[in-house]
Amino acid sequence: MIYQNLTVIFAVVFLYSVTSRWLEQKPVNGALLFCIIGFLLGNDGLQWFQVKLNNETIKTLAELALAIVLFTDAANTNLKVLKENIDLPRRLLLFGLPLTILLGIGAGLALLPGLPVIEVAILAALLAPTDAALGKAVVTDPAVPPKIRGTLNAESGLNDGICVPIVFTLLPIAENPELISALNKMAAKLLAQQIGLGVIIGIGIALVAGQVIAYSFKSKEQSKTWEQVTIVALAICCFSIAQLAGGSGFIAAFVGGLTFGWLDKPYKKKLLDSAEGVGDTLSLMTWLIFGAAIIGSVLHTFTWEILLYSILSLTLVRILPVYLVLHGEPLKLREKLFIGWFGPRGLASIVFAIVVLDANLPGSSVIASTAVTTIGLSVILHGLTAHTFIKALKS
User: Residue 376 belongs to a domain with what CATH number?
Assistant: First the structure.
């Protein structure tokens, strides 16, 4: 069975790679396509691709894909434009993100009354992070104003790292309600540790590695073939060392990418192009497994309340806070709505949902089903609307 699965995975990756330019011009993005193929060929379809991986394996694959994507996207960021418009992502992260979580809690209390309040809060927090990789056309298309691209990229690069301590503070309280009295202390300590260590480690590793890479290119110590993996290894080092130290690997990967991009060396683009391909491949493999193994497994808990919550999570719960916190900014209404709409849910939410499943909370299945429904709808809706909404933004 393992060789059959490998055949399906790499046959699909191969076919996508040789038609990628053509497919990227279509409304159906790679994540949606791989989800559909995974579902059709997977455990609940033709069973040509039968996935019996444990949650830790899927979680690790998603984490590695996200770390590489965060690093490369950050390294490609136009820092001058980001600096000039830093107030936009700052507002979204400091005010928009908490408002989104609060609105998500309100929607959950109204629609999912069977879930305890603390578990509703976990659901709202794990669905708050956005995924630039899922809306790649939006953050790479030059037709989108640079300040909007930079804002969405910076927000998605940092909000998952900020949500890590929130989710991991709420989980032990959900398992042991007596810890509620220590909530503020736990959250503050974990938030400072996750963000602080993530930033320090990301900057430190990127600066040291930048010097090593510069020396390697100057002295011609590195062979052409190994250029393909340099940034991949660097991104994963940022992520894994931060995780080992108790910080946020996601923040370390993103900040490390920003630092590496700031170095602005002539070989930067060549190294990043190769790494992007690896990150995209791992991401699409994650979506293939998501379609094959995860979507079908939660369908038995699907309800209209879950569907309605998912729709609200992608619309009102996301768009209203964005609109409110961007009040007073010199942006047109359609630009604010564009930023609000393109908050796709992706790899970070998958990672968090798997962590919650492993915790075996009373409402774990409902949380997982809601997360999968929201992510699935996001893959479809954001994928289908990206090119159309970009054209509308230009008009």
Answer: 1.20.1530.20
pLDDT digits (tens, 9 = 90+) for 108-164: 999 999 899 999 999 999 999 998 667 677 877 888 888 998 899 889 888 888 888
Within 10 A of 205 (CB to CB), how many other CB atoms are there? 23
DSSP conformation letters of 214-248: HHHHHHT-S-TGGGGTHHHHHHHHHHHHHHHHTS-
Asked if residues 349 and 124 have their Cβ atoms less than 8 Å apart, the reply is no
Burial class (CB in 10 A: 0-12, 13-18, 19+), 339: buried
Spatial distance between the Cα atoms of 148 and 151, rounded to a whole number of angstroms: 5
Residue range(s) defining the domain that contains residue 134 = 55-394
Q: Tokens representing 100? A: 């989104």
Residue 230 is assigned to a structural domain of this protein? yes
Q: What confidence category does residue 54 fall into, taking pLDDT thresholds of 50, 70 and 90? A: low
Give a yes or no: residue 11 inside a domain. no
| Domain total in the chain | 1
| Spatial distance between the Cα atoms of 367 and 147, rounded to a whole number of angstroms | 35
pLDDT at position 194: 85
For the chain, the C-alpha Rg in angstroms (whole number) is: 20
Query: According to DSSP H, which parts of 228-332 are helical?
Result: 230-245, 249-263, 268-289, 304-314, 316-325
Residues with Cβ within 8 Å of residue 333, at least 6 apart in sequence: none
Contact 209, 234 (CB under 8 A): yes
In a domain, 331, yes or no: yes
CB neighbour list of residue 22: distance below 8 Å, 6 or more residues apart: none
Type of residue found at 371:
A
- Asked if 344 and 374 count as a contact pair (C-beta separation under 8 A), the reply is no
Question: For residue range 210-225, what is the model confidence (pLDDT) as tens digits?
Answer: 999 988 888 888 777 7
In angstroms, rounded to a whole number, what is the distance separating the alpha carbons of residues 363 and 114?
A: 8
Helix axes 347-359, 364-394, angle to 10 degrees: 170
Alpha carbon dihedral 348, 354, 360, 362, in 10-degree steps, equals 60
Distance CA 331, CA 89 (A): 13
Q: What H or E segment, with its residue span, contains residue 48? A: none
The amino acid at residue 364 is S
* pLDDT of 239 over the 90 cut: yes
Q: Give just the sign of the alpha carbon dihedral 255, 259, 261, 266.
A: negative
Does residue 255 fall inside a structural domain?
Answer: yes
